[in-house]
Design brief:
By secondary structure, the chain is α/β, with parallel strands linked by helices. The chain has helices at about 15-25, 40-50, 65-75, 90-100, 110-130, 150-165, 170-185, 205-215, 250-260, 265-280, 280-290, 295-315, 340-360, 375, 385-390, 400-405, 410-420, and strands spanning about 5-10, 30-35, 50-55, 80-85, 105, 190, 195-200, 220-225, 230-235, 240-245, 320-325, 365-370, 425.
Length: about 425
């Protein structure tokens, strides 16, 4: 069990990883401090003075390399163990150790007991130095810092690390991606109505979306993959609606209204018909007729659209085309920035890699490992976690739980991953 007062700072932009780390460490008595990006992490390190700092490699605003460099150049953190948490593999981790003299690096995905063991190891390693008596006969020189390569000798190493860092997600989207898109779309064939079309094998959807956003396009992006299809509508470069595997966007909106407003079919058809006839957005009609307030419906609409976009972004095969077209008449004034969607979609892709380690298929059946409500309440579960846990009964498949909750595959799978990692559920044999 951790000593009272021991603080662990975790700097990571993944909510899934953060929640998992918080639950694992707090269960062992550690005070857990969370930061979602490098700038926030440095600020909290300076104010909280943690015993150990966990730093993710790939983050927006300030990447892991920059965070480690700033902290290690600060004399106040010369003895603070810093653990780099990376999914980039041992090669990247070792380069950070060599260049910055950080304490350890740790690879994702990880097991809870491995993380705890690593933290205990670096804390125990630090204790003798902290407890050592100061010299009385003569002043002792300050304890030597970990060997830092000189600039002339480390140029090669630093270049290797910097090259890896410069390909982090945020820099990629802001710099490399637009040029890549221009090259790939230059090879795409023009569509009949002044749009474009191409193959996902040579031009990924994230690249197409980036270009449509940069050009402030208005129209419809259609993606086909075997029997699957998706439509993403743009308005002046922003995403305003998306749908997949349905009989058109009207059908998608019908499903959204059923889930969000619980409208009977006759009222549902009335709302849509009114919107299509008058041009009045659906959210305005719903609010005017006191069926649901515009803000709440907007949240449902945003969540739906984001899920559909993230799903389409993961496709790696099939074809696409973009055509000039007006957004659906019923669309609410939703405007999602393409760059934000790409960053979040890529983050989710990284989290999927972790999730699939434990949930390779949605046909799997889980069973609860705890039945004590008081014990469950002490675990700090989110509302979504509680909803998912309540449906885990040893009979329902993961897919059946996803369908029943209407939360989307990613959100439910993420919650199951958390529940599995903290031993609240297990796979039924």
């Amino acid at each position: 069990m951790a000593m009272a007062g021991e603080k662990i700072l975790s700097i990571d932009d993944s909510p899934t990883v953060q929640r998992l780390i918080e639950m694992i460490l707090s269960s062992q008595g550690y005070q857990v401090i969370l930061a979602s990006d490098g700038e926030e992490g440095i600020a909290k390190a300076q104010s909280e003075r943690p015993s150990v700092i966990l730093v993710d490699f790939v983050m927006p605003k300030m990447n892991g390399f920059q965070v480690c460099k700033i902290l290690k150049e600060d004399p106040g953190f010369s003895d603070t163990p810093i653990i780099l948490v990376t999914s980039k593999g041992d090669k990247v981790g070792s380069k950070f150790v060599d260049v910055l003299g950080i304490t350890e690096y740790f690879a994702k995905p990880f097991q809870p007991e491995e993380l705890l063991a690593k933290i205990r190891e670096v804390i125990d390693r630090k204790k003798p130095a902290a407890a050592a008596p100061s010299a009385e006969a003569r002043p002792a020189p300050a304890a030597p810092r970990p060997a830092q390569p000189q600039a002339s000798a480390s140029t090669g190493l630093e270049n290797v690390v910097r090259e890896a860092v410069e390909r982090t997600l945020e820099d990629f989207i802001k710099t490399s991606l637009p040029d890549m898109v221009r090259r790939e779309l230059a090879r795409a064939q023009p569509a009949s109505n002044a749009g474009i079309k191409g193959d996902l094998a040579s031009c990924r959807i994230i690249e197409v979306m980036q270009m449509l956003g940069l050009q402030r396009q208005t129209g419809r992006l259609v993606i086909n993959r075997g029997g699957d299809s998706a439509e993403i509508y743009f308005g002046e470069g922003a995403v305003v609606f998306a749908a997949s595997n349905c009989n058109g966007v009207r059908s998608a909106m019908e499903g959204l209204l059923r889930r969000s407003c619980r409208l009977p079919d006759d009222r549902l058809r009335h709302v849509l018909q009114t919107s299509e006839t008058t041009g009045e957005p659906v959210d305005s009609i719903l609010a005017r007729e006191k069926l649901i307030d515009a803000k709440t419906f907007g949240e449902y609409l945003r969540s739906h659209t984001e899920r559909e976009v993230y799903k389409a972004m993961a496709w790696r095969e099939g074809g696409f085309y973009f055509e000039k077209a007006a957004p659906p008449a019923f669309a609410a004034p939703l405007r999602l920035k393409v760059e934000d969607l790409l960053l979040e979609g890529a983050r989710r892709s990284d989290e999927w890699m972790l999730i699939q380690q434990k949930i390779p298929s949605f046909t799997v059946v889980f069973e609860p490992m705890i039945g004590n409500a008081d014990e469950l309440a002490r675990r700090g579960l989110s509302d979504v976690d509680m909803k998912v846990f309540s449906l885990i009964d040893g009979r329902r498949t993961a897919q059946e739980i996803i369908d029943q909750l209407c939360l989307g595959e990613f959100d439910v799978a993420k919650s199951m991953f958390i529940l599995l990692s903290v031993n609240l559920i297990r796979r039924k044999k």
